[in-house]
Amino acid sequence: MDTLAYLVPLVLLPLSLSFLFFIRKSNSSSSNNPPGTGGWPMVGENIDFALAGPQKFVYDRMKKYSPDVFQTSLLGEKMAVFCGATGNKFLFTNENKLLTSWWPQSMKKALLFPDFVEDSLKEVSALKRSFLHDILKPEALKQYIPLMDSMARDHLEADWSPHDEVKVFPLLKKYTFALACKLFMSVDDPEHVARLAKHFTLVTSGMFSVPIDLPGTAYNGAIKGGKLVRDELLKIIRDRKKEMTENKETAGRDLLSRMLLVTDENGEFMSEMEISNNIIGLLVASYETTSTAVTFVLKYLAELPDVYDEVYRGNTPIYIYTHTHRESLYQVPIIPSDEECKSLQ
């Protein structure tokens, strides 16, 4: 009899969950939502996404539901996925109008301080557009090129030249992270950069996994790594703040110094946690995206020796091509000219 008492809840629980799942599915299908499914309760479609990979996952649902937009549930959040040239145009032309930048709750929990997890991404990213424009305009970017070139040469000499064969993507991630640390915070000590990179890799490896915070899971590792990254950044920010106060520094030598000097419309300075959040956001944005783009450039140069020879002689500019749809192809040069920079603003 005691055994039966334990078995009844075990049988009823999955039946109840299945019933709720089908009720939810029928309700969502009758509402004004894109075609698609939210998957299983709590799990969503994370398992299908992990098994199929991003590209196959999207293409399968474009065939099954719609080539333009479909709904799904990933990372514990309901999502609508826009596809094709029309969907991309809609996204890019409606930023801050119909759409705004957004991170899943699971990502914010891994990356940000607990005090900011419930805030919108707009509130978390407190940098003004005018401030971002000043540090990203062509004139400012030109100042970074000598440093980028010098670090690239040192990186090739230390990590590429001694070997007959190398794994490109991991090495490029190492280079881009070191470059970001130097440009954003003037951190160039190899041991310090390596320690930060180790913690940051824990975050990037687990923040897109199934958001189950249990010991041993990738997501649990991301949360632990995020705390270590935040602790490191707070120490860097406090040391710089003390140094600038002692030296009465009023000009920003890098992004961190400029963040410590910038004020809002009320004359208030950014808090240390706000600065840390913004730096983490910039590190995430610049990490795998840049490494992936340069990896593909090197891949195609290796596969197309004629093109490589022309580039090596300086006769052909290198372009990064971004496919948004089979009928739509966009190209952006790696180092744009002044005219191209103006046209891209």
Automatic annotation (TrEMBL):
Q: Which UniProt keywords apply?
A: Iron, Membrane, Metal-binding, Transmembrane, Transmembrane helix
Q: Name one Pfam family in it.
A: p450
> Does Ribonucleoprotein show up as a keyword for this record?
no
Superkingdom, natural source? Eukaryota
| InterPro entries associated with the record | Cyt_P450, Cyt_P450_sf
Q: Where are the transmembrane segments?
A: 6-23
Which example biological process does GO assign this protein?
sterol metabolic process
Q: Does the keyword Iron apply?
A: yes
- Signal peptide bounds: none
GO-annotated molecular function = heme binding; iron ion binding; monooxygenase activity; oxidoreductase activity, acting on paired donors, with incorporation or reduction of molecular oxygen
Name of this protein: Cytochrome P450
Read off the lineage from the record: Eukaryota, Viridiplantae, Streptophyta, Embryophyta, Tracheophyta
